[in-house]
Amino acid sequence: MTGISGLGNDLVAVRRFRRFVLEGKVALLERLFDDAEREYCLSKKDPAPHLAVRYAAKEAFLKALGTGLRQGIRWRDIIVVRDAAGKPALALQGQAARLFEKNGHKRHLLSCTHDGDYAFATVVFESAQVCFSNRFERDTSMLKARDIMTVDVHTVSMETSVEELARLFVKTKVSAMPVVDDEGMLQGIVTETDLVSQDQALHIPTVVSLFDWVVYLESEDRFAEQVRKMTARLVQEICTRDVATCTPDAPVSEIVSLMLDKGIHMVPVVDKGKLLGVVARLDIIRSMEL
Q1: Which residues of 211-249 are buried (b: 16+ CB within 10 A; e: fewer)?
Q2: In this prediction, what percent of the chain has a pLDDT beyond 70?
Q3: Which of 268, 270, 271 is closest to 280 using CA atoms?
Q4: Residues 81-114: tens digit of each pLDDT
Q5: CA 46 → CA 18, 19, 41, 42, 191, distances in Å?
């Protein structure tokens, strides 16, 4: 799959071309359309919509190219044809063809229609630049977690204070740290978001008193969790213990899927529970050599 490198749209009033035909603007039509285009359109009972939609396609092409009629392009360099299946397509010649190739575009796609008073066209350019997903599949299909993981990992323990954690985030410029014990076994992950939650305003849940009952209209557990994090003094009180991990032999494609599914930016690499390293999104980008 190729990447989109240009996009143009154009909307044309059909009545303009109906007026050109009625007024016999032959010279104008000859400047705008090549012989085959004019012959096809003028053979129709009402040539106007067919002329208008071709003009819209030419304008859309110029917008996608980003040049307009500058740099020597002529209207007749851009021709609307039909392929073997009858679908509308563009045929380029002259300066239009040269600039299209010079700017790195490899393919052009045309979609056009006319209905009533208006004609509309869209032109899309595709380049040789491979999009992220395809490049990823091509360049990392054989890579494993062990090939790209970061092994020099900043970690904390359950007993690390939140004050020290804040200092470490500032010093290391990372946004998440694995939590390990003295033997390097993974215990959880703590993030800047966990730390920042200490400074948020406490939201008191709405309650309703019914006879001798107090009914919480919002989650009582969520309120308790918020209070716990806001009053925490140690990492063990704010970290996440249910951590998504991978093994050293996990394919990079699976790690990407895990990140997308869980909405996370870092996956610890473990072997029998022991932390070996982490794979962050930056590690994946580096592996693609972008």
Answers
A1: eeeeeeeeeeeeeeebeebeebebbbebbeeebebbeee
A2: 80
A3: 268
A4: 986 677 889 999 999 999 998 888 888 999 999 9
A5: 8, 12, 8, 8, 67
Say which amino acid occupies 274: K
pLDDT tens digits along 128-170: 544 444 445 545 557 899 999 999 999 999 999 888 888 888 8
**For residue range 65-84, what is the model confidence (pLDDT) as tens digits?**
987 777 889 999 999 998 66
Using DSSP, state whether 219 is helix, strand or coil. coil
Q: How many CB atoms lie within 10 A of CB 179?
A: 26
CB atoms within 10 A of CB 164: 14
Show which residues are catalytic: 63, 114
Residue 209 CB neighbours (<10 A): 8
Q: Are 189 and 266 within 8 A, CB to CB?
A: yes
The answer to whether 109 and 124 are in contact (CB under 8 A) is yes
Q: Which two tokens stand for residue 241?
A: 């213990």
The secondary structure of the chain in percent helix, strand, coil, rounded to multiples of 5, reads 40, 30, 30
DSSP state for residue 206 in the 8-state scheme = P
On whether the CB atoms of residues 55 and 12 are closer than 8 A, the answer is: yes
Q: Please state whether beta strands 266-271 and 213-216 pair in parallel, antiparallel, or not at all (unpaired).
A: unpaired
φ, ψ for residue 242 (rounded to 5)?
A: -85, 90
Name the residue with tokens 């996440």: 240
CB 275 within 8 A of CB 247: no
Q: Which residues on neighbouring strands pair with residue 161, listed in sequence order? A: 234
Give the list of residues 6+ apart from residue 244 with CB closer than 8 angstroms, or none.
258, 262, 264, 267
